[in-house]
Amino acid sequence: MPQDDSWDADASREIARGGGKRPPTGFRDDKEPDRKGSAEPDEAEDDEELEEIEVVPVRRQLALAIAGFAGLLSVGMVLGALTSAPDSRLPYAIVVFGVQLLYLLAWVMALSPPAPAATAGVSVAVALVADYLSVTSAEAALMPLVWTTLGGFVAALIGQLFRAEDRARLTDSWRATLAIVAGVAAYAIPIVLTRQENGTQTVIVCAAAAGVALVVARATDALFPKPRIAAQVPRGVAGVVLGAMLGTLSGAALGSFLVFPFTPAKGAIVGLIAVVVAHLVDLAVNFGQAGRELAGDAPTFWVARHMQGPLGAFALVSAAAYALSHWFL
Length: 329
Known about the structure:
There is one protein chain. The chain is mainly α. The protein has two domains: 68-83 and 197-329, no CATH class; 85-193. It has 13 helices and two strands; from the N terminus they run ααααααααααββααα. A two-stranded antiparallel ribbon has the order 1-2. A hairpin with a 2-residue loop joins strand 1 (228-230) and strand 2. The model is unreliable at 20-39 (pLDDT under 50).
């Protein structure tokens, strides 16, 4: 049909073409950037965030030194348990007291509890009392060490109440104080186990398996620290897995040589539990150090910082050995 109106089909097509360029709702701002231009700053910000994550390098000599230190701790605990006789446990207690002092030095400097001098003094007293009770008590039991730990923990908290700045940190740092005091007392548990049935064999299997796991893991990190557990933690997954496998294998091998109730299967189970405990503590220490560095805290003395992992691992392995000796074997 002919259209007399000036609003013809050609004009409608022109309006339709121009309408696709208009926003669906509202009004367009002349200064509004296009979509491509608005996406570029977001991508640049994401790239900057990725570049800020610094990958901490793995120092080979340091990893080998930590592996050697873990090996020395393992050998010391094994030889001490082997040479401990009913009338000659005092030399073993002296060696254990030296390890307790190393643990105290490393963990006090790393965790920085309130009133560090008072906390360290109380912990030394706890170590002496725990070793003395482990050697001279009429009955070899764990409860005297538990009461010693609780008493030392309460005394350390009381020593942190005198200064105002220490009292302000008390609610946040009591866990660190408990870890220090309990770890010092835990090293006296192997002395108690050497006076109990099957205790010496349990200490040997746990200490050997944990030592093999830590030595292999740290030595592997020096050679092949891949894949990385985290960018800020200089540890590799390959070393942890390989250490767990060889540590469990060493426990099974020792179980085949020891007497009843040990068997290769029980040795493997005991070794596996000791390996898992040692790896968890060692990795937790590494992540704690990385967290403190990211938070901007002042780094601790480097010797104490790197001894903290193996020392904490063997402290908890000692407690695990007592539990395995009584509840599993």
